[in-house]
Amino acid sequence: MEPYPASHFDHDCCRPFLYPGSNKGILLLHGFTGSVSHMRPLGDALADLGYTVMGVNLPGHATTEADMARANAAQWIAAAHEALQTLRKRCDTVTVAGLSMGGLLALLLAEEGLADACVAISAPMATRNRWLRYAWLVAPFYPRVSWAPEADRHRDLNPAFDYGYSGFPTRNALDLAKLIHKARKGLSRVRCPLLVVQSTGDKVVWPGSADWIAGHVGTKTPQRLTLQDVPHACTISAEMPRIAAAMDDLEKSL
User: Fold this and answer.
1) Pairing outcome for strands 167-169 and 144-146
2) ∠ at Cα 18 (13, 49), nearest 5°?
3) Total-model pTM
4) What 3-state class would DSSP assign to 199?
5) Contact (CB, 8 A) for 179 and 105
6) Which of 15, 96, 182, 218 is most deeply buried (CB count within 10 A of its CB)?
7) pLDDT, tens digit (0-9, with 9 covering 90-100), for 151-206
């Protein structure tokens, strides 16, 4: 698939948001090549429950793949820190929840002791995509990787919120690999309340990712939510209400 123009993201759902609510804040972080639109339905559901909810676009996302090529893992981590600090000024507690790469960023913030609670959704401890695993070898020869055809990517997802890139600069897969390694290495430092979410239908991440996270964190009783047969971007699937409900339960424990 050819890269999308920047106008692809000219939709309200692709814009960062901040819903004012209670003194409990929730930061939502999207995934690799995605946009804040992937977190919008979950944000709406949590706002309806009364929480203060913030969603951001990470550097190099929701514009063009050329912009993504100029971004890196350090910038994504810095953006997550900045967003958390912004929300912290408004709220007494801040939960960080992320989808896929956003889940890795959420874990990293929890490892630093910056989050009062953490939700890792479809967070990879390894991936199934060969391009992501061997990017360091192929990047000099294949500068861009295209995702699956649009019809396949949109299957079982809400197309009204499915806005992301049609591919990615191969070199950025190295940044994703760095985040996976960094998050895995520090899992024992996660001691805050934790919810780990993964679907049986996720064809992107290693199936054992959720078990690995739950089994290696310092949190005494991490919570688990197993979704049934929905894709990787489960926050815009029919199972989203179950994620919101589980997050509501987690917030009530704070």
Assistant:
1) antiparallel
2) 95
3) 0.96
4) strand
5) yes
6) 96
7) 445 568 999 999 999 999 999 999 999 999 999 999 999 999 999 999 999 999 99
